[in-house]
Design brief:
Strand order of the largest sheet: 1-8-7-6-5
Number of strands: 8
Strand content: 35-45%
Number of helices: 1
Distance between the termini: 13 Å
Radius of gyration: 13 Å
Shape: globular
Order of helices and strands: EEEEEEEHE
Amino acid sequence: MFTNYISSQKDFEEIDHSKGTVKIDGKTYHWNKDNDPEYQDDEVLDISYWTLHDEDGESTNMVLAYDKRDDVEDPQEWGDEYDADNPYVLAFN
């Protein structure tokens, strides 16, 4: 997905995993929580992510990302392999 790694981390006000929404700069964005996440592992990024969509359902240049954990030897679930407690939003330029 990413051909340009110029990005910035965006702060978010709130996140609701049950609804698949995140509020950034007063606007609500959503991800399709029913779909499996996508993955990027190319020696620059090693993340699991969902693309964020605006209120009209259009894809944005932002993703909700989770870093891969290096401290787990035999992960049994996605939450074991990725840092599920520390999501962040990346906005790509």
